[in-house]
Structure prediction request, 462 residues.
Amino acid sequence: MTSGPISTPSASVNWKTDMGRVIVVGAGAGGMMAAGRAAERGAKVLLIEKTDGPGKKLLISGKGRCNLTNARELDGFISMFGPNGRFLHGVFHRWFREELLALLGRYGVETKVERGGRIFPASDDAADVVNALRRYLADQGVDLKTEVRVTGIALRDGRVAGIRTEAGLLPAGAVILATGGATWPATGSSGDGYPMVAALGHTVTKLRPALVPLVVAEIERAKSMQGVSLRNVRLTAFRLPAERIDPALTPAKDCGRGIDTKRRRGLVIESRMGEMLFTHFGIGGPITLLMSLSVVDALAEGPVSVSIDLKPALTAEELRIRLQRDFDQFGKRGFRSLLAGLLPHKMIEPFVAMTGIPPERPGHQIAAGERERLLSLLKSLRFNITGPLPLSSAIVTAGGVSLKEVDPRTMASQIVDGLFFCGEVLDLDADTGGYNLQAAFSTGYVAGEEAASFVQDFAEKS
Ligand SMILES: Cc1cc2nc3c(=O)[nH]c(=O)nc-3n(C[C@H](O)[C@H](O)[C@H](O)COP(=O)(O)OP(=O)(O)OC[C@H]3O[C@@H](n4cnc5c(N)ncnc54)[C@H](O)[C@@H]3O)c2cc1C
Prediction:
């Protein structure tokens, strides 16, 4: 692997000889895999990256630990991508988790499986994954050029002829677009690929933030509980304003992407039990992120609110009995001190304010109606959702190059000959758990292999 800034001026282009080359745009997970595999299949490969090094997003993935993939069986794995997951069947049958782990293993990356089937490098260090991929590129003789921004894809006679950069035109017989999504632009993924392919006639489906915290209308209330992390709560999103939620509709089991086989159409959008947190603008944490794309999509159609069941292990009746028992048993204690047994410290004052019960009122003087107010807040603490945080702060971009225009067997464009895609630039996104990286690696592998065959076929014919 060679690396450094590019110096080829457009005047020195030799269209004929350079048409045997594959150019990969973007050295993220997908692009590195694509470049390595194309070179392994015998193609001359140039990998172009606009930042000063490859794998910037990989390095921060999984909080720096890189959740590479997931141990889930194939059908369950694919269901994590929602309806578009179907596109990945052929790709995953061809090159999946075992092949990825074997490749990384060859470069010394041992892995381990954690809760929820999440697979990480045993070292807990994403840099080991990036270094392994760098060595793979070097072994295959990939030419890596950094700090070069690609500005467009050049065509000749209706087929790919190279790429345009700020330094000039670079010819190639095939181009693999691996520019990623539009989230965390500091990593280099700032959505550059979308206008490039839209200019060639490709459809880019609406970009939306996925795996993103949500902003609430009741900001002051959320702020008052900022930093509180809740475990084992049930978060349910409704297609309704908060005041119209009927807590009886809260499902007893999780539902949503990766669990349901069909898209939900009723009042309940998704419901998940797990960990969430309050922030200065609303709600975040694992279950919020998992539900966020469905919420974002539902918001486009009407009001959305969420209800948090803080005591999901108890039915409303069981909780009613417990409250009555506790308030009788510790009847001399004030309301504020009774709440300490029910809620994290930082939620006590907000609950005093929300219930309107005087904080010093002794338990035995709290009326049944007041207990009911507390009960309904514990079983259904509600917020109206105003929107997600911006796309730039989401983990993944939903939407992208329409899958209808990409051959699922080869990752080739069905509009422009010689153009291939891989990774997040495609209209593919999944929940957290290692699914997105596996998709980038697998689509990269297939795109690399197919682009290499494409230029070789072309060379044989001409
Ligand atoms: C904070 C965070 C944590 C994450 N953690 C995980 C995780 O643990 N597990 C998981 O499965 N997924 C995770 N993801 C998602 C995952 O990282 C992405 O889905 C994946 O990296 C996409 O790979 P990609 O190769 O398509 O794009 P990227 O990795 O984004 O790479 C695209 C590359 O293209 C380059 N590029 C863009 N435009 C140009 C241009 N014009 N010219 C030249 N180069 C260009 C960029 O600089 C970048 O290097 C995380 C995402 C974030 C933001």
About this structure: The pocket of flavin-adenine dinucleotide is lined by residues 25-31, 48-51, 56-58, 60-62, 66-67, 149-150, 178-180, 183-184, 188-189, 192, 395-396, 423-424, 434-437, 440 (CB under 6 Å).
